[in-house]
Amino acid sequence: MVRNEAIEAKGLKTRPPARYSEATLLGAMEGAGKFVEDDELREALSEKGLGTPATRAAIIEGLLNEKYMLREGREMIPTAKAFQLMTLLRGLGVEELSKPELTGEWESKLALMEKGKLSRQAFMSEIAAMTEKSCAKPKNTTAILCPAITPRFKRPAPTAAVS
Questions:
Q1: Residue 70 region, left (φ>0) first, then alpha (ψ -120 to 50), else beta?
Q2: Which distant-in-sequence residues (6+ apart) come within 8 Å of 116 by Cβ?
Q3: Which candidate, 2, 105, 114, 155, has a CA 20 to 30 Å from the CA of 17?
Q4: Residue 112 and residue 119: Cα distance in Å, rounded?
Q5: Owning domain of residue 64
Q6: Over the stretch 67-91, which tens digit does the pLDDT of each residue have?
Q7: Is the confidence at residue 136, as pLDDT, over 70?
Q8: Distances (CA, A) of 42 to 59, 95, 97, 119, 154
């Protein structure tokens, strides 16, 4: 048996993690493999990260231009629109579209293609199937989930033949 002779309460406060700056966000995109649990996918991402060095800054600018993030001084602040999109993806059951594991999976499969262990046809068929599954859920869901970002398309999406 262990006895404690004294207890002292400390009134400490926890602090949230620091917000990303553009530099730390670029670094997180480059090292996105750190956020992936699966060893194979983590390795696939560790070599390349999210995007390429040439496209990472453009991805961030696109998020800023589309108002998914705001720049406040050096901090990058996610907007309500970003939170709504994440909620919508979870609600539709397609949150994998927002996870680095998807990029890792594709990078892993592209590496298999380079080695001749996976055909382009098989890879593109998987992409087409995932796209159909991901697009079917919003089509079959009412706009009530998140009306602020539910797109209104004038014509149906084109269908592409897989070759």
A1: beta
A2: none
A3: 105
A4: 8
A5: 22-142
A6: 999 999 999 999 999 999 998 888 8
A7: yes
A8: 21, 18, 17, 22, 40
How far apart are alpha carbons 85 and 90 in whole angstroms?
9
- Please determine, for residue 103, whether its predicted confidence score (pLDDT) is greater than 50: yes
> What's the structural domain count of the chain?
1
Owner of token pair 């079959």: 140
Residue 39 amino acid letter: D
Residue type, 24: T
Environment class of 48 (CB within 10 Å of its CB; exposed 0-12, middle 13-18, buried 19+): middle
Please report whether residue 158 resides in a domain. no
Instruction: Tell me the pTM.
Output: 0.69
The packing angle between helices 100-114 and 39-48, to 10°, is 80
Q: How far, in Å, CA of 41 to CA of 135, rounded?
A: 24
130, 62 Cβ separation under 8 angstroms = no
- Of 99, 94, 60, nearest to 77 by C-alpha is 60
Residue 163: pLDDT band with limits 50, 70, 90: very low
